[in-house]
Amino acid sequence: MSDEKLLEVVDLQAGYNGMAVVHDVSFSVREGEILAILGSNGSGKTTTLRAITGTIKPMSGIIRYKGEDITGMPPFKLVSKGIAMVPEGRMLFGGMTVEDNLLMGAYLNQDKKAIQERLKLVYELFPRVEERKKQTASTLSGGEQQMVAIARGLMSNPSLLILDEPSLGLMPKLVKEVLQFVKTIRETGISVLIVEQNVNETLAIADRAYVIQDGSTVISGAPEELKDNDEIRRIYLGM
């Protein structure tokens, strides 16, 4: 893992209809790491991601990616720069095959050979997704759908993969499985920013973590520090 900052968020303020949900969020993602953003429901985690990925326009603050100011940049431009987002709730096209869903993740790439090479790599990472490639997405289990959603995010060949609540709605056994895939992705050199409520399982795979409460970054540190500190567990992580 490098000390080089891939993504940097400074004093972010964002919200909806002129009302700020996120007031003061700052953090960075280093190259080659899994960074976790933790916090209870309504703490501002998803709003932070929406501001980073251009779904909503930040009210103030700076977002830098590879040193470039990307504050307020539209989502399609961010994809072309190497940022991929896997949204909460998976958002698959249920009537399309798994493979067609994956190909939607490469829609900006016109190089058919490169797309096929990327597909091959994704199938190597996710053998079960390859087994299901001819099935329609709606026939898959929740865990399989989440793997397809993550695999689709990888089809754009990102340097940074952003995951919003990938464990949502999954049984505990599947949560572990999906998060292990996140570790495998990091081993290919892709940095991962993961937002989660599932604290223990996420801290088990993360290199560093930030906790957001009431729209502000309140604490950060190595997973062991956060897990072993009773006050942090009680006040910020609801454990």
What order do the helices and strands come in, and which of them pair?
Elements: E1 5-16, E2 19-30, E3 34-38, H1 45-52, E4 60-65, E5 68-69, H2 75-81, E6 83-86, H3 98-104, H4 112-125, H5 127-131, H6 142-154, E7 160-164, H7 172-187, E8 191-196, H8 199-205, E9 208-213, E10 216-221, H9 223-228, H10 230-235
Parallel strand pairs: 3-8, 3-9, 6-7, 7-8
Antiparallel strand pairs: 1-2, 1-4, 4-5, 9-10
Helix pairs in contact: 3-6
Structure description:
The chain is an alpha/beta fold. It has ten helices and ten strands. It has helices at 45-52, 75-81, 98-104, 112-125, 127-131, 142-154, 172-187, 199-205, 223-228, 230-235; strands spanning 5-16, 19-30, 34-38, 60-65, 68-69, 83-86, 160-164, 191-196, 208-213, 216-221. The strands form two sheets. Strands 6-7-8-3-9-10 form a six-stranded mixed sheet, sandwiched between helices. The radius of gyration is 17 Å and the shape is globular. The mean pLDDT is 90.
- Low-pLDDT ranges: none
Percent of residues in helices: 25-40%
Major sheet: arrangement of strands:
6-7-8-3-9-10
Terminal CA distance: 29 Å
The computed structural class is alpha/beta
Major sheet: 6 strands, mixed
How many beta strands in the DSSP annotation? 10
User: What fraction of residues sit in β-strands?
Assistant: 25-35%
Mean pLDDT: 90
- Overall shape: globular
| Rg from alpha-carbon coordinates | 17 Å
User: Helix and strand string, N-terminal first?
Assistant: EEEHEEHEHHHHEHEHEEHH
Number of helices: 10
